[in-house]
Every structure is written in structure tokens, then in C-alpha cells.
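User: Here's a structure from my thesis project, written as C-alpha cells. My advisor, Dr. K., wants to see whether a designed sequence matches the one we expressed. Can you design one independently, without my sequence as a hint?
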């Protein structure tokens, strides 16, 4: 077995630093913005149940595989896959997995930045008292006004991309650690406050029933694929973000415990967001399937009506922007790490270059909410198509290949050594999951969604 490699990009200061950074990557718009709206669009409880099953059966084993490969390779995902394929005597074509991840990261960050821009815009709205009173129609009109204005959307998108480029250019470990340590708990506390508000809305049980009472007649084959895709999206899996963070993980840290901690925190945040939002939806006669605007049309109502709402509302959107920021950073890091390793570019040049391309691509999503909203393909807008392609096709496919490589091609001695589980039985369980359950599960969902089974 070769000697342990070292990462040229640095290392996290401790296991905790990794947990914080990876949680920062995982917890983001996916939990608070996307999870509630896709749950609403896909009928509630049954969708949530499938999503939870995907996290446990597919997400956690693949996350372990991704961190493990990253730490073994200690490079950008492209080079990590190349090195590990070499080490395992496999085709160098495995590095294409890294390339696919870079592409998926570009696509996701392009629309992610536009939505993060909405959160930034709402910081100012909240602070200026625009939510006060919290009448549902006025809040709805406010959101409509934002979407309808391409210049505003693009300006906020530009600001968010600039913020992301700024951090990645400086190197992810600096600053990120400290920010996440304070902001994540604060976001969590505010979500609890919102759930408390929802409890008093008179519709809490309706909200809970919508989220947790499965009605399988409401979920379609495509809905199952969306739930699977979201398990990847929300845990930042399948595109190398977690792999590249794993590359900076100290050798001693236990991969299994850290992974489970991250997945649990991520899931909790999503469920809390759902519990805060749906009671407000029902209390105000809103539509659960309202789409991507759902949280921007519901939470301001709560802030507008609750005492101290001006402060809490502002704080909430600040924290949501931060959560998006720490995720955006991880979407950009795999590409930048590769450019620094292989092209000898400085971090700053590499980051600004990638950021520019992503910014351009993001314009298409920004415009798809207004002047290009009638331009559709397969019945979906540009934003919806980019999201569907990246989240529901590229990420699960990337995850499937990661599982196959880690379970079947990488010598067992290596995975055993890196995972270093205390119990042999736990290792055997992981191996069984990534060998059989995960690949079969992901393939079945794909075949089902395209109508083959
Ligand atoms: N997990 C992030 C979220 O839920 C999004 C993300 C996806 C980040 C893929 C990195 C990689 O918001």
C-alpha cells in the first residue's frame, strides 16, 4: 500500500472543523428553500418518507464512500479519481467522474446563486419593515415584484457570486470554520422559534399531517426520483464537494461517526423547516405546491405578525444567506482545486475564472423567472431544467459511480484501512450497502422514472 498522501491545499484543523465545514456545505438552501417546496409539489408525507429512506439507505453509505475516497486521494476529485484508479489498477477514465462533478457543481451553483440572491434581497426587505402586518397578498406581491425584475435579480446574483469567489479565493479553511461554528447554531435556534410560531398558528397539526402522514397515491415515479435526487443534493453528494472536503480531513478522524453526525444535522434542519412552513401555508390558505417561491411567500407572513419580527426576520434571512454561502463555496472548490493542481494557476485566478463562467450561466436562470419565463423545454423553465438535470440525473449518477468504484474496484484493504471502523460488523454493513443496496436502489429509481419498470 502506498504511503499516505498529503493535500497541497492544507488540512482542517481537527475533526470538528471538517464536521462544521461539511455541515456548512450540506445545510443550505436545499434544506430550507428546496425541501419544503418540492415536498409541497409532490404531495407531502409519502415524498418525505421516500426522501428519509434515501438519506439512510443511499445517502449515508455514499457519503462515507465519498469522504473515504477523498481522504485517500488527497487531491481535487478529478485527480483523486485518477490516482485511486491507478492505485487500484483500473482505467484512467474514472477521472471522468471528477469532471462530471465539476460540471454538476457549475450548473448547481449557477442557479443556487440566483436563489441565494433572493435571500440576500430579503435581508433588506425584512430590515426595512416590508413584512410588517404580514398580509398574505401583500407578501405575495412583494415576491412577485422581486421575480419580475431582472436587474434586481441579476444584481443580487452577482453579489452572491462575488461573496463565494471571495472565500474560495482565500482558501476554504480560513474563516469558514469560525463562521459556521457560530452561524449554524443560530440558524437552528431561529428555526426552532419559527416552529414555535407555527405551533400557535392553529394549523400545526395540519402541517404535521401533511409532512408525516404518507399517502402513496400522491407520489409519482418522477416524485421518487426527485426525492432521491434531493437526498444527494441536500447532503452535497455525487459531485465531489464532500470528496474534496474529505481530502482535507485529518487522518485520525472517524469517517463513519462524522458522516452520521452531518447527515443527522442536515435532516433535522430540513424537517424543522417543513414544520415551520406548512402550518403557515395552511393557516393562510396558501398553496403547498406554490413552487420555488414557497418560503419567500410564507415565512415573511410569520415574521410580519410575530412580536420582534423585524429583528428575527432580518436575522433569519441573514442566516439563510450564510447557509447558502457555505454551500456555494463547496460547489466551487472541486474545480478550483483541480485548476491549482494541474494548471499551476493561483487560487485567485482559478476562482475568478470559474466564478465568471458560473455567473454567466446563472443569468439564464435569473431570466427564466421573468422575461424568459415562457421559454420552456419538456414543459419546464430553464431554471427547472438545470435543477432537474443536475440534481436528479447528474448527482445520483455520480453517486452510483462513486459507490461502484468504492465497493467493487478499490481494493478492500484500502477502504477497510481508511474507514477503520471499530466493529468489523459495521464495515461489513457499509460494504454490503454500497455493493448491493445503493446501486440497485439508484438504478431502480432511474428505470422507474424513465418508465422502463
Ligand atoms: N447541500 C446544499 C444544500 O442543501 C447544496 C449543495 C449541493 C452543495 C451539492 C454542494 C454540492 O443547500
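Assistant: Designed independently from the structure alone:
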Amino acid at each position: 500500500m502506498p504511503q499516505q498522501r498529503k493535500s497541497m491545499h492544507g488540512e482542517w484543523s481537527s475533526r470538528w472543523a471538517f464536521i462544521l465545514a461539511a455541515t456548512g456545505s450540506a445545510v443550505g438552501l436545499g434544506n430550507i428553500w428546496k425541501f419544503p417546496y418540492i415536498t409541497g409539489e409532490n404531495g407531502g408525507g409519502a415524498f418525505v418518507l421516500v426522501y428519509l429512506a434515501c438519506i439512510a439507505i443511499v445517502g449515508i453509505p455514499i457519503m462515507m464512500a465519498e469522504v473515504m475516497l477523498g481522504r485517500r486521494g488527497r487531491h481535487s476529485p478529478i485527480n483523486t479519481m485518477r490516482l485511486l484508479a491507478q492505485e487500484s489498477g483500473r482505467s484512467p477514465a474514472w477521472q471522468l467522474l471528477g469532471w462530471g462533478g465539476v460540471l454538476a457543481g457549475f450548473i448547481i451553483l449557477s442557479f443556487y446563486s440566483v436563489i441565494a440572491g433572493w435571500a440576500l434581497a430579503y435581508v433588506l426587505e425584512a430590515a426595512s419593515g416590508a413584512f410588517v402586518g404580514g398580509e398574505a397578498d401583500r407578501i405575495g406581491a412583494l415576491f412577485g415584484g422581486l421575480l419580475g425584475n431582472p436587474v434586481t435579480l441579476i444584481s443580487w446574483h452577482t453579489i452572491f457570486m462575488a461573496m463565494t469567489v471571495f472565500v474560495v479565493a482565500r482558501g476554504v479553511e480560513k474563516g469558514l470554520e469560525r463562521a459556521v461554528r457560530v452561524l449554524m447554531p443560530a440558524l437552528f435556534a431561529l428555526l426552532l422559534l419559527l416552529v414555535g410560531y407555527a405551533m400557535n398558528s392553529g394549523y400545526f397539526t395540519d402541517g404535521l399531517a401533511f409532512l408525516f402522514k404518507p399517502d402513496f397515491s400522491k407520489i409519482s415515479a418522477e416524485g421518487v426520483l426527485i426525492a432521491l435526487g434531493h437526498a444527494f443534493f441536500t447532503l452535497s453528494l455525487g459531485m465531489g464537494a464532500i470528496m474534496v472536503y474529505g481530502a482535507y480531513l485529518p487522518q485520525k478522524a472517524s469517517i463513519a461517526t462524522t458522516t452520521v453526525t452531518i447527515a443527522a444535522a442536515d435532516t433535522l434542519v430540513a424537517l424543522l423547516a417543513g414544520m415551520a412552513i406548512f402550518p403557515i401555508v395552511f393557516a393562510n390558505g396558501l398553496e403547498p405546491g406554490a413552487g420555488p417561491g414557497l418560503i419567500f411567500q410564507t415565512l415573511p407572513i410569520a415574521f410580519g405578525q410575530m412580536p420582534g419580527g423585524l429583528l428575527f426576520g432580518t436575522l433569519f434571512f441573514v442566516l439563510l444567506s450564510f447557509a447558502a454561502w457555505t454551500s456555494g463555496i463547496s460547489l466551487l472548490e472541486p474545480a478550483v482545486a483541480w485548476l491549482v493542481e494541474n494548471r499551476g494557476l493561483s487560487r485567485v485566478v482559478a476562482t475568478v475564472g470559474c466564478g465568471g463562467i458560473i455567473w454567466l450561466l446563472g443569468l439564464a436562470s435569473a431570466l427564466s423567472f421573468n422575461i424568459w419565463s415562457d421559454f420552456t423545454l419538456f414543459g419546464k423553465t430553464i431554471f427547472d431544467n438545470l435543477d432537474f438535470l443536475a440534481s436528479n440525473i447528474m448527482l445520483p449518477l455520480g453517486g452510483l459511480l462513486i459507490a461502484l468504484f468504492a465497493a467493487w474496484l478499490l481494493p478492500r484493504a484500502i477502504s477497510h484501512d481508511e474507514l477503520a471502523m471499530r466493529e468489523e460488523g459495521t464495515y461489513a454493513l457499509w460494504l454490503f450497502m454500497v455493493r448491493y443496496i445503493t446501486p440497485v436502489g439508484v438504478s431502480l429509481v432511474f428505470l422507474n422514472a424513465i418508465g422502463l419498470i
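When you compare it with your expressed construct, this may help: Residues 25-26, 28-31, 108, 233-234, 236, 239, 241, 327, 330-331 surround phenylalanine (CB under 6 Å).
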